[in-house]
Amino acid sequence: MSWKIADRELDSRFLLGTAAYPSPQIMLDAVRASGAQVVTVGLKRQSAAGACGGQLFFSMLRDLGCHLLPNTAGCSTAAEAVALARMAREIFDTSWIKLEVIGDEHTLQPDVFELVAAAGTLAREGFQVFPYCTDDLVVCRRLLDAGCVALMPWAAPIGSGQGLINPPALRTLRERLPDAPLIVDAGIGSPMDAAQAMELGFDAVLLNSAVSRALDPVRMAEAFKWAIQAGRLAWEAGIMAEQDMAVATTPVSGRPFVLD
Fold first, then answer.
1. Where does residue 109 fall: left (phi above 0), alpha (psi -120 to 50 degrees), or beta otherwise?
2. What is the mean predicted confidence (pLDDT) over 91-109?
3. Residue 98 is among the residues annotated as catalytic for this protein
């Protein structure tokens, strides 16, 4: 079932990164296998294109027919992120921007103060801002107040593959921000993690390393595709409540009977 994010209607709820693949061809094949309609691309990070050059790499991405979501990976101040976002809009001809402002180089945790400041500036300039943030409810509210079109809270530190380290916090975001598009971003390690995020009611999953670092990125991309779809279907169907004790699935009448 299609869904709307910012100014676009999408069929896929899988957003995929394009960095650190073994080769450009494997990256292209993985994107196709994933069914993703949105791919992220960073101006400051080395791309999978390697020696084939930036312009050729960007042309390859455009040929996929996917919508590009440039990011400000590598920025540590609001001013730096805003400048890079403006450059990305000129290069890619899109107002979409995945806003990253990193406050700690060890955990790659966002600097929430600089993030909110940058988000406000970019939103006023007409950008459709997708901030990479923590799972802090108050920070997420500030980002929405600043004009962000969606929120991208982490599941765990970027590239760690730890999965959802704080499901209750993510569940709280979904419950307290029922109308906000929520996309789990960072820390996903396996398709099971992606399905869990979708079962919490999140709208989509964005990941990179779990596919690009897999032994077979193309097959892993397809595995995530189906896991995300399954998780969304489970959320829509309504998952049964957990019980503290056993509950018989077959009711009994208390009277035996004999089948002829």
1. beta
2. 92
3. yes
pLDDT-wise least confident of 22-26, 96-100, 127-131: 22-26
User: Is 223 a known ligand-binding residue?
Assistant: no
Q: How far is CA 17 from CA 48, 153, 252, in A?
A: 10, 16, 53
DSSP SS3 for 40 = strand
* Cβ atoms within 10 Å of 61's Cβ, excluding its own: 22
What residue has token string 């799972």? 135
Give pLDDT, residue 49. Answer: 43
Annotated binding residue 209: yes
**Rounded to whole angstroms, what are the CA distances from 144 to 40, 100, 186, 220, 260?**
21, 15, 20, 33, 67
Q: What is the model's pTM?
A: 0.88
Q: Is 53 annotated as a binding residue?
A: no
* Cα–Cα dist 231/204, whole Å: 10
Q: Which of 119, 199, 220 is nearest to 155 (CA)?
A: 199
Q: Does 208 count as an annotated binding residue? A: yes
Nearest Cα to 81, choosing from 47, 131, 28, 36? Answer: 131
State what percent of residues in the chain have pLDDT above 90. 75
User: Could you tell me where the DSSP H helices lie in the chain?
Assistant: 24-34, 54-63, 78-92, 112-124, 137-145, 167-176, 191-199, 209-212, 217-237
The tens digit of pLDDT for each residue in 155-183 reads 999 989 999 999 999 999 999 999 999 99
Q: What is the mean pLDDT of the chain?
A: 90
Instruction: Give the pLDDT score at 214.
Output: 97
Q: Of 4, 44, 98, 225, which residue is the catalytic one?
A: 98
The answer to whether the CB of 46 falls within 8 A of the CB of 73 is no
Residue 240: count of CB within 10 angstroms of its CB: 7
